[in-house]
Amino acid sequence: MPVGKLWASSLGDRREGLLSQAVLQSATSTYLIWLGLLNGLFY
C-alpha cells in the first residue's frame, strides 16, 4: 500500500509541475506578445 500511495503522490506532483510549467509558459508568451505589440505601437 505505501508503494501505491507513494506512486500516486509522485504522479500528482508531476501533474502539478506540468500544469505550473504550462501556466508559466503561456504567461511568458503572453508577456512577450504584449511587449511586441507595445513596441510596435510606440516605436
Q: What gap, in angstroms, lies between the N and C termini?
A: 62 Å
Q: Secondary-structure element order, as H and E?
A: H
Helix content: over 70%
Mean of residue pLDDT values: 85
Overall structural domain count: 1
SS-based class: mainly alpha
Give the gist of this structure.
The protein has 43 residues and is an all-alpha fold.
What does this protein look like?
- With 43 residues, the protein is mainly α.
- The chain has one domain (1-43).
- It is built from 1 helix and no strands.
- It has one helix at residues 2-42.
- It is rod-shaped.
- 0% of the residues are buried.
Distinctive features:
mainly alpha; 43 residues; 1 helix; single chain
Could you give the topology of this structure?
Elements: H1 2-42
